Amino acid sequence: MYRRFWTILTVFIVLYCGSAIAQNFPLLHYTIDDGLPSNTVYSVYRDSKGFLWIATPKGIARYNGINFQKFTTSDGLPDNEVFFFQEDKQGRLWLATYNGELCYYKDSRFHTAVNTGFLKLPFKNTFINKIAVEADSTVTIMFDNQEKFININENKVDIVNVNVPGVRGFYAMYKLKGGLYRCFYADSTKDIDKTSKIVNRRLVLYNYSQPDAAHGIAHSIAQDQRYIVSNNDVFNPQMERIKVITSKDKISFHAPIVYFDKAEKFFLGTENGLYIDDSIHVIPDVRVTSITQDIERNYWVTTLFDGLYVIDNNYINFHVYNKAYEGNIRYSYADNNSLFYTNSDNNLYRLKNNAIECLFDYSKFVIKLPVVPANHGFLITRQAAGDYDYYNFYENNIIFLRDILRERRLTPQRLPFKDGESVKSIIDAKDKLIVRTIDKIYAKPINDYKVSGVLGEPNAKLVASAGRIFAFASNANDDIWFSTVNGVYKTVDTTLIQPQFGDVTFKKFEFLGKYLVGYTANNRLVVCRNIDKQIIMDTVFSQDCIWDKFYRVDSTHMLISTNDVYRLFTINPPGSQVPFTVTGIENPILPLSAEWFCSDGENCFFFDKGNIVEMGIDNLLLKTKPPTLFFDLITYGTRRYVMYDYLKVPYQGGRNISITFSTLSFTGKTISYRYSVSSTDEDNWLELTGDHIDLINPKYGRYIIKIKAKSVSSANSIPIEFVLEITPPFWATWWFITFYVCLIIGAIVLFVRYRILMAFRKTQKENDNKIRFMKSEYKALNALMNPHFIFNTLNNVQGLVNRNDKLAANEYLRIFADLIRQNMHNVSKELISLQKEVDLVTNYLALEKLRFKEMLNYSINVDEDVDATEIMIPPLFIQPLVENSIKHGIFPRQSENSRVELNIYEVRDILHIEVRDNGVGLAHAKKKASDKHESFGLNNVKVRIEQLSIILGKKIDFDIKEIVDDRGNWTVVLITMEL
User: Which residues cross the membrane (predicted)?
Assistant: First the structure.
């Protein structure tokens, strides 16, 4: 916190009726109590961001408009005593130290010879008395012994000797083009190169009034301005005269400070205070050491033993009248460049043209009444230009002063109501005065007060009576409104009306146009619109303060005093998005807790502790600039990074991130912050306390960090934005993820392949077992086929023997022997060639022909495209089909036309084996067949075909059907097999 007080700039003149009063500038004063390291301040400097740096013998301080941040050797300074500062084009703030060690501040860090190698010099230093940024952006540093100076180009240091024998008084220099330096001595200038070689020399006389030039030259440094002062002449570094000082006061050449603002106003700091434009003398009797301006163009003046002073940039439009009254102010009224006021001594004063006049001296009043501060009421009414009447309701009497500027006719009267009903406030309502006591409101025509006489008792009309009246005001129609414990009422003439405010009652309220603004007992500010019709009530939130008094400024503005800063209620122009606004006013010049305020439409007046501050309404209504924010550092784990627009840092798991920022605000003091941390373009604003943001264990990724700020009196600042990218760890990089995914996919593929292989092996094993089983079963079926065939054949031989057909039986046995030999050779194999099966069928049909003679005819047709020797089939694959045709088709028919045909052919790599007969047909065969002998051979063939299809992995189909062609009806058995 800082301490503010009004500096007395002139000798106190005792106030009396008709006395003159000094008009001064409002000044702010900062000392060690406000946070300065010392009251001895060598200089103040504004850096490129707008921060102010203060140099003292006990460390330095940086001021952001809100508070002072102090730095000492414990913070990295090489010396606590620093004389001044200078910032170069690289943003390095150079410090002029007492011990001569080089040091600059950048990126929140002090750089010295300890941590920055090029700053270490090879010679013993004396204190630095000059730091200058040259035209080529290099930095020149001069030392007090005047023997040498250094020039720093980025991180390279050149040392130049300037101690020339026989030449005295070296005090200034600047760099020329081509690497030359122009050095100024007491009686000459010399151009030298960096090897100290003199290139050019000429004599020059700087002193225009003193014979000894060495005692009339001084070097001035203020902000980035460098001047040379010789007696009453001011020169630029090129020794061109730019100003002649015309002040009548004697100027000391020990340490004059010269400063020009952008408006070319001339400021001169001396041992006897500050001079402005050679005419205005402020801060007398102190030694001024430096001058600069902040970003709001306010003037900062440092002194040798009295701290810092601040002059408002609109000092011409501000007036401070010191010791303008005594005690407390009771009432004030301003009009036509005149300020009227009454203080606790019950006198009436006027302030005009820097003079105070006592218009009414209560001490000379014939009636002596005790002073009771709570029981009074005052009012000034304007009859015409320069014609004012004054009413002083005090205790049970009325003091009426007619035409206070000219006639001043005094008319004392008795109050028109009971004793003890002291007046609290008065309202001028056109042709009558409205007087409020603690529980009643009276109305009385103004003309009744103007009758002559003493202690008259004119009649007054009782307008309203209530248990307790808290607030009381009139609207634009001169209707009287008042608030009681039971609600809000208004009076129209003599009629009492209760508007629709519900249960809302006001502790205080005031009208501004068609708006009623007041606050309730629970400190809720309420704004009522459309008060003549259906009232609209709005509650004002987000104002953390305690409401106090209402003061009209003009037709659209009302000032509200609070426990901290003033609030300004503004009626916005028609068509605005919001009808009204409530904003803070943070002007350090204004007294925070003024006793009274009044306005004449152009200027406003604040009364505080005997002083009166006058300022233009336009200045009062100036909008406050929002704070300016700067990112400083980001701390991640043990590392610190300087923050620019973008920063990429490696991921450190489990580490928190701390982001610090700085605030700059020379108007608003109470700052609130909001921040957003988002990984998308969508903001996520949160409230923030303090000057840092902590990110707890952040994940890797891209973060957009934004901060904005506002003061009580300003809008939100434009958010500052910073992009922080935390690079992913190796296990989250694309190449590692790709490798990991590939590894997982490979593992899955291998696992799936392994599972498939295991399943395949298991299935293969099962299939092998099944196939082995099938082969065994197949062999068993083949074994069954062989006995079946033999049984049928022997049965046929028995038939021939029984018929005593020996020749046929012998032929039959011969063919049967060949057939048995073929069958025994074939059945030992799993597969035989198709030709061998055809040969076996041929012999079998020959046997059956011997048996049935003319009752059986047959034919075997093998297509020439069929390679019967290469195609492999199981043994007894076709014979059971032929046997089945004979047994169930041909034999039951008993006809000489009976015929069995075996046709073998290929169609599109499909082998077709067709056995057809023109026997009795399927229906008759099924009907006549017994269950015992039902197609044993045929069923056996079906099962064998199914097993063979699985064993060979080929598709084999079996089909029986009947067809009809031009030769008759045929039963066809067809086997198809893939080759």
Answer: 731-752
Strands 93-97 and 104-106: antiparallel
What is residue 893's three-state secondary structure?
helix
Return d(Cα 6, Cα 9) in angstroms, integer. Answer: 9
Residue keyed to tokens 């049965």: 795
Tens of pLDDT, residue by residue over 150-186, are 999 999 999 988 876 655 667 778 888 878 888 877 7
Q: Please state the length of the chain.
A: 979
Q: What is the pLDDT of residues 895-916, one digit of tens each?
A: 888 999 999 999 988 999 999 9
Sheet containing 596-599, strands listed edge to edge, beginning at the edge strand earlier in sequence: 23-24, 318-321, 611-616, 603-608, 596-599
Which of 729, 724, 685 has the alpha carbon at shortest distance from 707?
A: 685
Pseudo-torsion of CA 297, 300, 301, 306, nearest 10°?
Answer: 150
Q: Are 565 and 588 in contact (CB under 8 A)?
A: no
Strand, helix or coil for residue 908: coil
Tell me which DSSP letter residue 872 carries: E
| Cα–Cα distance, 572 to 550 (Å, whole number) | 18
Give the residue among 917, 862, 912 at the shortest CA–CA distance from 884: 917
In DSSP terms, which residues pair with 53 in a beta bridge?
A: 45, 62
Q: Could you give the 3-state DSSP secondary structure of residue 766? A: helix
What letter does residue 450 receive in the DSSP assignment?
A: G
pTM: 0.73
Is 715 in a helix, a strand, or coil? coil
**CA-CA distance, 899 to 34, in Å (whole number)?**
134
Residue corresponding to tokens 């005031």: 510
Across 771-800, b (16+ Cβ under 10 Å) vs e yields beebeeebeebbeebbebbeebbeebbeeb
User: CA angle 115-119-121, nearest 5°?
Assistant: 125
Amino acid at 78: P
Please list, in sequence order, all residues whose beta carbon lies within 8 angstroms of the beta carbon of residue 966, skipping any fewer than 6 positions away: none
The conformational region for residue 579 under phi > 0 = left, psi -120 to 50 = alpha, else beta, is: alpha
Contact 829, 871 (CB under 8 A): no
Instruction: Kindly report the number of other CB atoms within 10 A of residue 522's CB atom.
Output: 6
Look-up of token digits 């002194």: 303
Residue 248, phi-psi category: left (phi > 0), alpha (psi -120 to 50), beta (remainder): alpha
720-732 per-residue burial string, b: 16 or more CB within 10 A, e: under 16: bebebebebeeee
Residue given tokens 């009062």 in the structure block? 620
What's the CA gap between 528 and 473, in Å, rounded?
A: 14
C-alpha–C-alpha distance, residues 312 and 587, integer Å: 10
In the chain, what is the straight-line distance between the N-terminal and C-terminal CA atoms, in Å? 106
SS3 at position 217: strand
pLDDT tens by residue, 510-559: 999 889 999 999 999 999 988 777 788 888 877 889 999 999 999 999 99
At residue 961, what is the residue type? K
State how beta strands 628-636 and 657-664 pair.
antiparallel
- What angle in degrees, to the nearest 10, is found between the helix axes of 806-827 and 834-852? 160
Pairing assessment for the beta strands 68-71 and 59-63 based on DSSP bridges: antiparallel
* Contact indicator for 956, 976 with CB cutoff of 8 Å: yes
Encoded amino acid at 895, one letter: S
Secondary structure of residue 801 in the 3-state scheme: helix
> How big is the chain by its Cα radius of gyration, in Å?
59
3-class DSSP assignment, residue 772: helix
Q: List pLDDT tens digits, range 47-57.
A: 999 999 999 99
User: Hey, what domains does the chain have and what are their CATH numbers?
Assistant: 473-586 (no CATH), 628-730 (2.60.40.10), 788-978 (3.30.565.10)
Q: Rounded CA gap, 756 and 750, in Å?
A: 10
User: What is the C-alpha to C-alpha distance for residues 300 and 293, in angstroms, rounded to an integer?
Assistant: 6
Of 61, 21, 27, 55, nearest to 41 by C-alpha is 55
